[in-house]
Write a structure and sequence with these properties.
globular; 28 strands; six-stranded mixed β-sheet; mainly beta; about 50% strand; four-stranded antiparallel β-sheet
């Protein structure tokens, strides 16, 4: 039985959501990268990047109501509330490692076309790739060799049922492994061939292993992914937008809480004991892919009440009774970099 997925048409308009159906059989899948996503031909401008703080630091999207709204900002990890330095790059989502960075951004004032900008250690654009859909998530592998992107092809939020995403892993500056919807997914011993499979929210362990969310039949799973075998294996149900801890022993994610409609809380799974801890201290509806500040603390974004477009990055310890605190005001999409 053939497996179908929505394939975004990479064209001038990245929001051409009218998807075409492409068949992919269960056998004979390539074991390595496939044809690369079309690159944009325009040469990116040289960015005037300030001197970056030495030592551990946090990059994020600035959301203060000022002239730098949307720009990438950076602060020292030890002084997150101190003065921030700005990189003139307007990113919807941003992620960084010590060697490179990923920026998902709009390419026109109307926000109808979008691209992935790959940046080097000096925050200069090294490659640019067209995106099909609205940017949602991006992550880099620890060594900076792989980049993952998730975009919405229909709807613009995980709050909406029936959304369709496109999630891709590619070699930085190189080829793509294609849409993860095409990877082999086996649930309860049966290969899933349903047309409603969606995969999103990648977090990397290394340059081969990763975790992500897979959804089909109205349910979601935390899945472990393997690039060499192009396979996805369920780890736990009711888990979305995972983030693996720096020591690779735990995964944090969103869980859909029963009885409150579409309402997400944060949870942490110990991969060695299979014990899940729900962080009841955070009572807000968290619609984000968290970042690990350290082995025991999570960072995530929340909208500020009654201030449209303004967000703050919060921190919470990974204990069930931990209370959240504001970590960086006027911020979104944090990534912690330790050179």
């Amino acid at each position: 039985m053939a497996r179908f997925r929505h394939v975004a048409v990479a064209a001038a308009s990245a929001l051409a959501v009218g998807a075409v159906l492409g068949a992919c059989g269960g056998d004979g899948k390539p074991s390595g990268p496939v044809a690369a996503t079309p690159h944009l031909t325009a040469s990116p401008p040289h960015l005037a990047v300030p001197d970056l703080p030495a030592g551990p630091r946090v990059f994020f999207r600035h959301t203060g109501n000022d002239a730098h709204y949307g720009d990438v900002a950076v602060v020292p990890l030890q002084h997150p509330g101190g003065p921030r330095r700005f990189i003139p790059l307007d990113c919807v989502r941003v992620y960084a490692t010590a060697s490179d960075a990923s920026c998902l951004r709009a390419t026109d004032h109307a926000g109808t076309t979008h691209e992935l900008d790959e940046l080097d250690a000096d925050w200069q654009v090294s490659d640019t790739v067209a995106l099909a859909g609205l940017p949602s998530r991006t992550r880099l592998s620890p060594d900076g060799s792989l980049v993952a992107t998730t975009t919405f092809l229909t709807h613009d939020s995980y709050e909406n049922h029936g959304f369709v995403t496109a999630t891709e892993i590619r070699r930085v500056g190189g080829e793509t492994y294609g849409d993860l919807d095409d990877f082999r997914l086996v649930i309860d011993g049966h290969e899933v061939t349903a047309h409603d499979v969606n995969v999103w929210g990648v977090t990397f362990v290394d340059d081969n292993d990763f975790y992500a969310t897979a959804a089909t039949g109205g349910r979601t799973w935390l899945v472990h992914g393997d690039l060499s075998t192009r396979s996805l294996v369920p780890v736990r149900s009711n888990a979305e937008c995972p983030s693996v801890s720096p020591d690779h022993t735990r995964v944090a994610y969103k869980v859909d809480r029963p009885g409150r409609g579409r309402y997400w809380s944060l949870a942490v799974l110990d991969l060695t004991t299979d014990r899940q801890v729900v962080l009841h201290g955070e009572r807000a509806n968290v619609d984000d892919q968290v970042e690990w500040l350290d082995d025991d603390t999570l960072l995530y974004g929340l909208p500020r009440p009654r201030q449209p477009g303004v967000t703050d990055v919060w921190a919470i310890r990974t204990r069930g009774d931990a209370a959240p605190r504001v970590f960086i005001k006027d911020a979104w999409s944090p990534s912690v970099v330790r050179p």
